[in-house]
Write a structure and sequence with these properties.
Elements (H helix, E strand, L loop, with lengths): L1 H19 L2 H15 L8 E2 L2 E2 L4 H14 L3 E5 L5 H13 L4 E6 L4 H8 L7 E5 L5 H11 L5 E5 L5 H11 L8 E4 L23 H11 L3 E3 L1 H7 L8 E4 L5
Parallel strand pairs: 3-4, 3-6, 4-5, 6-7
Antiparallel strand pairs: 1-2, 7-9, 8-9
Length: 248
């Protein structure tokens, strides 16, 4: 039986490696990704009744990570309509234990808060309204993280370089060894120049550029290349950061 499992996993590794070197597939993926954003593709999905505003591939990636890490605490900056909080809470519910999800947003709309708080999984959710880089907010988050054995962090709020870089500096010390720091929307760097005309971010000023700068000075984290390679379609290229070091 173990031989069958090893064989299956080995073949997967081989095929993932082949995909990594398939330039034509990568080009097709990029073309598809750009075309899909014109139709607001990521807005079309829900998780247990709430809009999740993520690509299905990245939802699968988070499922794998959460099941593997089994975090006591998931910290997520950016709440929007709450689907991602519900997703993380549902994974923690499956794992069991006392794990919670802590969501931070500068503006938690009243109607979204109502829907999140009345959801069956709200018992595993806590929310803080305020900027994710505000000192008082960060102090509250550190209090939640203190003493936790396994902490996972997901960054998905303001996507400018300076904001994400500050989040990386503030939240990375909370991530525990063998867990992850996931930075969403790094794909902005790979999009056409005119993709975000009404946003303060774009090429040269986005989460990916922040990750690149962060990694120059922090050796606790490494990009999980296998994850983004097997996904093919992801909003987080270079954004799945595995914590390989101990305490900061």
């Amino acid at each position: 039986m173990q031989e069958d499992v090893d064989g299956f996993n080995g073949r997967n590794q081989l095929k993932i490696g082949e995909m990594a070197s398939d330039r034509s597939l990568a080009d097709l993926t990029q073309q598809w990704f750009v075309a899909s954003t014109k139709h607001e593709y990521s807005y079309h999905f829900t998780w247990l009744g709430r809009p999740i505003i993520q690509f299905p591939q990245d939802i699968i990636a988070l499922q794998e990570i959460i099941w593997r890490v089994k975090p006591d605490l998931v910290i997520e900056t950016g709440i929007a309509r709450g689907g991602s909080l519900i997703f993380n809470a549902s994974m923690l519910e499956l794992i069991g234990g006392e794990g919670i999800v802590l969501g931070i947003d500068i503006d938690i709309r009243a109607h979204n808060r109502v829907e999140i708080e009345k959801h069956p999984l709200s018992k595993r959710i806590r929310m803080i309204e305020g900027s994710s880089i505000d000192g008082e907010v960060v102090k509250q988050i550190r209090a939640y993280a203190q003493g936790k054995e396994r902490v996972l962090v997901i960054l998905d709020s303001n996507h400018t370089h300076q904001h994400v870089l500050k989040e990386l500096e503030l939240y990375s010390p909370m991530v525990t060894k063998d867990s992850y720091l996931v930075v969403f929307d790094t794909v902005i760097e790979d999009m056409p120049e005119d993709a975000y005309p009404d946003r303060p971010w774009g090429k040269g000023n986005n989460p990916k550029t922040a990750v690149w700068e962060f990694l120059k000075k922090n050796d606790r984290f490494q990009i999980d290349r296998e994850m983004e390679t097997k996904l093919l379609i992801t909003v987080a290229p270079d954004g799945y950061l595995k914590c390989v070091g101990g305490l900061p």
